[in-house]
Amino acid sequence: MTEVVTAEAHAIIGGYHADPFRYLGPHVDHGQPIVRVYLPGARQVRVRYPEGQEAELKRIHDAGLFSGPVPSNGRDYRLLATWGKSEAIALDDPYRFGPVFSDLDLYLMGEGTHLQIYDRLGAHPMVHEGVQGVAFGVFAPNARRVSVVGDFNFWDGRRHAMRVRGNGFWEIFIPDAKPGDKYKYEIVGPHTSAPLLKADPYAFSAEVRPLTASVIVDPASLPQITPGPAGINRHDAPISIYEVHLGSWRRNPYLNNSWLTYRELAEQLPQYVADMGFTHVELLPIAEHPFDASWGYQPTGLYAPTSRFGTPHDFACMIDAFHKHGVGVILDWVPGHFPDDAHGLAQFDGTALYEHANAMQGRHLDWNTLIYNFGRREVANFLVANALFWMDRYKIDGLRVDAVASMLYLDYSRPEGGWIPNKYGGRENLEAIDLLRRFNTEVFGRFPNATTMAEESTAWPMVSRPADSGGLGFGFKWNMGWMHDTLRYMAKDPIYRKHHHGDVTFGMLYAFFENFVLPLSHDEVVHGKGSIFGRMPGDRWQKFANLRAYYTFMYGHPGKKLLFMGGEFAQEREWTHDHSLDWHLLEYKEHAGIQSLVRDLNRLYKTLPALHQLDAEPGGFEWLVVDDADNSVFAWLRRGRDPGSVCLVAVNFTPAPRENYRLRVPFGGGWREVFNSDAEIYGGGNIGNGGRIQAEDTDHGAVLSLVLPPLAGVVLVPEA
Q1: Which one-letter DSSP state was computed for residue 491?
Q2: What is the pLDDT of residues 220-229, one digit of tens each?
C-alpha cells in the first residue's frame, strides 16, 4: 500500500522541515522497517543491504520522495538511484547515520566552554560508522531549516538538510563530500522563506575573493610544524618584531605584479627576517577577508588563513620555515568587529546572532562594521576558541589584538546619546572586559610559551597585568603614547627641539606601568602620514641622520621593539597595500646604510642583556642627562640582572657635534664604544669616540668626556 504524503512529507519537499531525520532514513512504522528517501528528480530508488537483499522504494511524490518497507531494520545499507535514462548510481543515505556530536559536546557548546569547538563545528573529514565522509556542524539557533550545499549535491538545499540538536547546533554527516569540495550553509531564517547562503564561520579555508564559498580541509593532512623557539616571548627576552603585510612585502614583477605565495614567502621572508636580526615577525591579519584594502582588518573567516597566497598546507609550511629560522610568529587578530558582507556572519541565521541587534551597540561608526555580542556565550566561545586554534593548529607564538580600546568602551567614537551604558550606568563594556580576561587566561594557561599584545590607545590601567589581579591579562601593550610623542619630536626642525624636550622624557614617567612594545607600525605610514623617513626634517643628509638617531634612541629605550616593513631601509613613499616595497632603494648607499644600522641594532639589542632583560622594570633604567634641552642631548644607563651588565646610551638630536661632552658614570675605568649611528658604514660622517675611552676620576665620581656626533646616537659599555 502506497504511503500517504503527509504534511511532514510536504515540509521535506518544500525545504522547511526543521528535523528531516525524524522523517527520512530508516524507521519502523507499525512494526515494519521502512526507509524514506528524498532525492530530487530521481526516477527510481532501491535499497541494498550487505547480505545482498534489495528492496525497491515507491515514489510517493513526483518531486523525488520515495518510501517503502525493507527486509531489515538496520542502518547498514546503500541506495541505488536512477535519474533519467542513466544507469543506477550507488550512494550512501546521509539520513541513515547517527549523530556526530556527543552529549558532552552539546553540553560544552551550550555552556560556551568548548575550547576546541573548531573540532566539532565546521567541516571535518572522518570515518563515521565505517563510512568515509565529512561531518558538518553549525550554530544557527533561530533558523527553521539549515542545509549544507556544495559541489557534492549540486548546491541544492533540499538534499542535505541538517538535524538540530541542543541549543541550535545543527549537524549532518555527508558520505559523498571530500576535502577540496566547496560548500556553504543554506539557512531559512525565522521571518522569511527566502534562504540565506552563508559561508561557514568555522571553515578552515575559502575560495579566493571575490568568490566566497568555504572549502573542506582535512586537518590531519597538514604538515607537522616545528615549534617556535623556547622562551622567545619572556619579558626578559629580546623581542624585536618585523611587522609585515604579506601581499605587499614583495611581489612578482614577472607575473603581472602578483602576490607571492605562502611557499614563495617561505623561501624568502624567514631568511630575511632572521638575517636582519629580528626575533619575531608579526603578520597583518591573515584570516580570510573579502576586501584587499582592509588589509585583513575586516575578516569574514576567522579560522581560515586567506587563500590569496595558497592553501592551509602552504600556510603551515611558511610558519614552519619561520620557526626553523628561529623566528617567532605573531598574528594580528581582530576579535572586535566584522564586515556585514551577505555571505558572512551578519544576520547569520536571519537574526542578529553574532552581533548586537541594536545599532548603538552593534554597529561600529568608524569602520561601518558590526560589533560582536561579547556577552553571548556562544559568540565568546567562538572568539576564545579561535585564538587557541591558531596556536594549536599552526603553532603560532603570539597574537596582537587589534583595536582593544574600541572593545573596552561602549561610547567609543560615538556621539552623545548614541550609546547604551552598562548595567551600572558606566561606559565600560563589561562583557568585552570579561572576554579579554578569559582569552588571555586561556592562552597563557594552555600555551605558556606564547604571548599576547594589546593595541590599546587609551590610559586603561593594568592592560598587561594578570587577570586574577584585576588586569586584562595581556603579555604586552603597545606604547602608543611613546610613538606619538617621539614622532612629533622628530618631525621638528632641530632648532625648535629644545622647546619640546618633554616629548622625549615624558614617556619615562609611565614606562614601567605596563610591559610595553615600542611600535612604529603600519598605522604610521598610511592615510597621508607619509613614511617614517619622510617625517624627518632637514636636507637629505639630515633626514637619514635623524632617522639613524631615532632608531638608536628607540633601541636604547626600555620596551620591546616593532618596525613595519620598509622602515628598515628608509622607504621614502607612503605604504600602499597593492604594491611591493621599493627594494630598488637598496642600490643607494644611504638606504643600504639604514638597513645595516637596523641589522646591527637588532644584534646589539640581543647580545647586550642590559638592553633587554629589564625592559619592563624600573631597575633597568637610569637617566644620566635628562635636562639638557639647549643641546637636545639625552643620556641614560640601561642595566641587566647581573650587576656588571650595564651600557650607556647617548643621543644628540641636533646637527652640531658635541666635543668633550662630560657626563658622570657609575664607575671609572675604560669604556668602549660598541655602536655609533654616525659610522660611515651607515651613511654617517664617522665622527665618534674610537675604540676606548678612559673615565676620569673626579671629586664627584667618574666622568666620561664624549664626542657626540651630529644627529646621532652612541652606545658604550664598560670594559671588564
Answers
A1: T
A2: 999 999 999 9
